[in-house]
Amino acid sequence: MNSENKEVKEAELNDIPLIDEKNLRELAMDICDGKIFHDRLIDPNRFKQDVGMVFMPLALGGLEGVKPKTIGLMYEYYDKAGPRSVNGMPCFFSFNIIHRDNLPDLQKYMEEIEYFKSKFTGNKEKEKDLVNKSFADGLNKGSEG
User: Which domain holds residue 127?
Assistant: First the structure.
């Protein structure tokens, strides 16, 4: 494919819409409360093999028409998981995507929530839970590309 056709094809793809602050804050609370499974929880060494088995619509072309560079995070609520799992992870028949430009604010909100939780419980030495560590590690890796 020549570069002109590639540019036209890229122009036909859609951006992922940005999430407003209110919904982004709710999402941060749900992630911190452990209600959401996200792609940062997938082993990076097995990501390509497992992501389509976890988020099944991906294996069926679920990202067709989406600009790959706008993808920030794929997630779904645990209560929407199917009855089976793969490699210890849930399987979903649906998923949501967050625009990569929303990730810094999402991370900030999650850090605020964890700070207030630790203040409320009086646990000043408490580390952020594994879910949020995985998210932050993945966020830092994802923002490099």
Answer: 8-144
